[in-house]
Write a structure and sequence with these properties.
The protein has about 350 residues and is of the alpha/beta class. The chain has 12 helices and 11 strands.
Length: about 350
């Protein structure tokens, strides 16, 4: 399994920034260039994405309008910066009323139930609302490298990835761009989109936005990075109450979609949480494990990750200036087992 950092690096090396359809795969093209309407892909049986029902009833458009209202005085994430992004001003996420995409391509390095046979249709959005100082994708998240994209182009990317057999549309770092995503989603539905929508976020979300996405998202893939908000603040550039917001958001995600469900080994709905083990247990893996077992259940699907390495500005913040040890990771796994957790990826 290739790490996300290596995946992005390979994308940039292969085709430069804004590598639509990179990493050795066929170049991105509109569905018209690929032969017309979307094919029906293999994405885990006859699952019908929930967004289709919302679109048919008109509710999806109402949710879209509610999300756009939040950009007048931005409250799309817990930073609540209040920036009038619709007037062209940039929030803490460095985004205004426009958006950028760094890459859109099938990805085979995600968790196995998300990748299946044909890959996850991964769309990496530029900029970020959390801004970790150890970010492995800092060129995209902090610098905002990528290509300015229209809603029609984003919809075409979704259809193109579906046509190439991807099992889902994997929206990476979507929190600051949820209005754009729902607008593009409606366009893509009109063009035949019918694979699960995957929301791949840092976990730093508001309950209100998560409730607006109820029925829009089929699979949630949040991080739960820190269990102590005071410890987290210097590593997240002042993001307040990270642990509290992430806990509420992830519980709401679980309420909406439940435990991960699969057909033929391919996920079509549910929650999968990522947790990166950090040096000296800064991430609070022991607390995280007990919280998941207590609040969500022992069958919750998790990826407890060992691949931390110092990236971006991590060398300025010991002990994040080193990799974790084998002993630290083994201890993290013991904590997970002791909490009774069963489903690991």
């Amino acid at each position: 399994m290739i790490s996300r950092r290596k995946f992005i690096k390979a994308c940039f090396a292969a085709a430069g920034i804004a590598a639509f359809g990179s990493c050795g795969s066929r170049s991105w093209a509109s569905p018209r260039a690929e032969g017309g309407a979307a094919n029906v892909p293999e994405h885990g049986g006859a699952y019908r994405p929930r967004y289709l029902t919302l679109a048919a009833s008109g509710e999806l458009e109402r949710r879209e309008q509610e999300l756009w209202k939040k950009m007048d005085s931005c409250s799309l994430c817990p930073r609540m910066c209040g920036t009038n992004r619709m007037a062209g001003r940039k929030g803490i996420c460095s985004s205004d009323h426009t958006f950028r995409v760094a890459s859109a391509t099938p990805h085979h390095g995600e968790e196995r139930p998300l990748v299946g046979r044909n890959g996850s249709g991964t769309i990496f959005f530029s900029n970020c609302n959390l801004l970790c100082i150890f970010c492995q994708n800092w060129r995209i998240a902090h610098r905002g490298e990528g290509r300015q994209t229209s809603h029609a182009q984003l919809a075409d990317m979704m259809i193109s990835l579906q046509n190439r057999g991807c099992h889902n549309i994997n929206l990476v770092t979507p929190s600051h761009l949820s209005p754009h995503i729902v607008t593009a989603l409606r366009l893509a539905i009109d063009r035949g989109l019918n694979v699960p929508l995957l929301y791949n976020s840092s976990g730093y979300e508001t309950l209100e936005v998560m409730q607006l996405l109820d029925g829009v998202v089929d699979i949630y893939l949040p991080d739960f990075k820190f269990q102590d908000s005071e410890i987290a603040i210097p590593f997240l550039q002042g993001a307040q109450n990270y642990a509290e917001y992430a806990a509420v958001a992830i519980k709401e995600m679980h309420r909406q979609v439940g435990t991960l469900t699969q057909a033929d080994g391919i996920a079509n709905r549910g929650l999968l949480i990522r947790h990166l083990v950090l040096p000296e247990n800064l991430a609070g893996t022991d607390v995280f494990s007990r919280w998941v077992a207590s609040e969500l259940g022992a069958d919750t699907h998790l990826n407890i990750m060992s691949q931390y390495s110092p990236q971006f500005r991590a060398n300025e913040f010991p002990p994040l200036n080193r990799r974790i040890t084998q002993r630290e990771f083994e201890q993290a796994m013991r904590w997970a087992r002791q909490a009774g957790l069963r489903n690991f990826h």
